[in-house]
C-alpha cells in the first residue's frame, strides 16, 4: 500500500466536491487524493497489480464503508468494477480493502490494446462517488525471442 505523505501547507478547510475530478490537493490536509505509481510496464498476456491507496476529506471519512466499490477507467470506459469483477475483459480483482483506503487492484490478461492511462474511482451507496485526478500510465511490452544457430560438433 502506498503511504500517505505528511501534511505541510494545506488546511482542513480546503474542499472539493465529491462528484468531480480533484487533483493533487494534499489529502492528509483534508482533500481527495489517490496514491499510485505514475507508470508501469507489463508483459503482454500477463497480470498487473496496481498498488494504490487513497484519502478523502474528513467530511467523507464515515462514507468509506463496505458499500464502496473500486472502478478503474480508461478512455471514459470502465475496465474494472469490483462489484462485477468478472464482467470486464480484464477479469480483475480488488486486492486491497477499500474501508482501509487500499485500492490495490490486479488486472488480468493485459493485451497491447490495454496500453493506456487509468483513473481510479470510488463509488459508495452514500454521498461518496469520486473520480480521482491522479492517473497511472500502463504500457504493454511483448517478449522478444532471438534465435541463434547452434552447430553440433562431435569429438573423437
TrEMBL record:
Domain of life of the source: Eukaryota
SUPFAM superfamilies from the UniProt entry: Immunoglobulin
UniProt KW Ribosomal protein keyword: no
A GO-annotated cellular component: plasma membrane
Membrane topology: Single-pass membrane protein
A Gene Ontology BP annotation from the UniProt entry: cell adhesion
Record flagged with keyword Transmembrane helix: yes
Entry's localization field: Membrane
Principal location class: membrane
One MF annotation (Gene Ontology) recorded for this entry: sialic acid binding
Gene: MAG
Keywords from the UniProt entry: Membrane, Transmembrane, Transmembrane helix
UniProt xrefs under Gene3D superfamilies: Immunoglobulins (2.60.40.10)
Name by which UniProt lists this protein: Myelin-associated glycoprotein
Composition skew (Low complexity), residue ranges: 1-17
Positions of the UniProt region annotated as Disordered: 1-20
